[in-house]
Amino acid sequence: MAGTVPVAKSLKDIYTEDALSTQTTRWEKLLQQFKVNYGSTPDFVSRSPGRVNIIGEHIDYSLYSVLPMAITADVLLAVRVIDDSQAPEGSYKIKVSNIQTEKFPAHEFDIPYETVDIDAKVHEWTNYFKSGLRGALELLRAKHGAGYKPKSMEILMDGSVPAGGGLSSSAAFVSASALAVMFANGEKEVDKTALTELAIVSERAVGVNSGGMDQSASVFSLRGSALFVSFVPTLTARPVYFPKTNPELSFVIAQSFVQSDKQVTGPVCYNLRVVECSLAAAYLHAILNKSTTPLPSDSGPLGISLHGLQSTYFSTSTLSNEEQLTQLIALTGSTLTKEEGYTRDEIASVISLSVPELNDRFTSTFPVRAEKFKLRQRALHVFTEALRVLKFLSILETPSSTSTSAQDQDANPSTAQFNQQLGDLMNETQDSCRDIYECSCPEIDQLCAIARKAGSYGSRLTGAGWGGCSVHLVPADKVDAVKEAWEREYYSKMTLTEEQKSAAVVVSRPGSGSAVFVVGGEGVI
To answer: d(Cα 352, Cα 291) in Å, to the nearest integer?
Structure first.
């Protein structure tokens, strides 16, 4: 699935047939508003979608494989390259505005050629564009030399991925921004892997210990398939197709309307989990590998990972990946015995660091607030979830193993057993996220319970957690019943705008990834 980001000739190249009418209206509004804002037509539109993670929650930053899919909701950046003479000497000008002007005010920046400053402590929407800009410039300068001077640009953004909704609005924004900068600066063939890797690193500039699943799904996805994303030894992605089932399966995404912003809540939620997983890797390495030297560095956000621990511990093993994970689950249970968590002093003494050295190594890049770190729970979730991903993939790719001989004789056999096996794994993920990783919330738990009772095979949170969205594997003939149950037992008890009501539940199909649309005189169809 490597290759270059496609340049679309029509919206039909980007969206499924059922979405074309709505998207055409939206794109035409974007182009019209760009002309109102800047007095001219944009040169092109950069587009990157949000994603829903089917299974593999909170394990990408431990470098374990995941299974997301892109969705229709996306970030659009209409862009025009402008004359550099508008900027002061030694800098270039970036004008950036948003369709939602009241919520996201326009800004104009004169940025020095030398660096792109981002204050991660300030929660400002344009920081996401700046992070994509900074990452793209590093790639451009690696290719053209350190003295490369980027173009000035006018930009209008429209995002349909709800912020804080667990569908990866931030990764979509950063990926679309980096792509826009590359294309505006003459890179007409943007490599998907390079774009993904720079987007992963770039998002960390806004204070989020990002893994790599969100960016991979946003850039690599192909319409009609999920995406199996692996991070070691290098970033790779391949399509995974769901077989035909009876009853047919639908992925239904339900909003909790509990907003969870990774940048704002990071010190006690998302970033803390990244630190806990990294500390668990260091601690288990010291005990299991009987080593006083650190784990070999890898591409994890803090330079080491639980996957790195597995690779080191089983470096000479002939066991399968599944067998290794099963052993690690048992070893974690017997090694990390403190349910209440471990203090900095307790961890530092085991990993051969002083407390100040531990703080500098693990908690200074992205500050966290915690007296104790729940290493046992976090490692157990990661290893069991990594194993669930492998089981889910195995079921998908060997569906005949779930059929009975009686079913095989049927012209249209029921796949209820196959469907439920997939759903059971999703339910196990939700249980682990709620009880072990502690990244769910009562509202998500309620949405999942309602859906299962109404006929969902499997229901779980998706995304960072602590709010946002849930994803449900629902037989097509039960979708209406599930939606009605949510309305009756959950949404009717909330005060929602009409816009929120219409976006509360989405029946999703796997969508396509990043693309560039060059604006011409023929319209967007």
So the answer is: 9
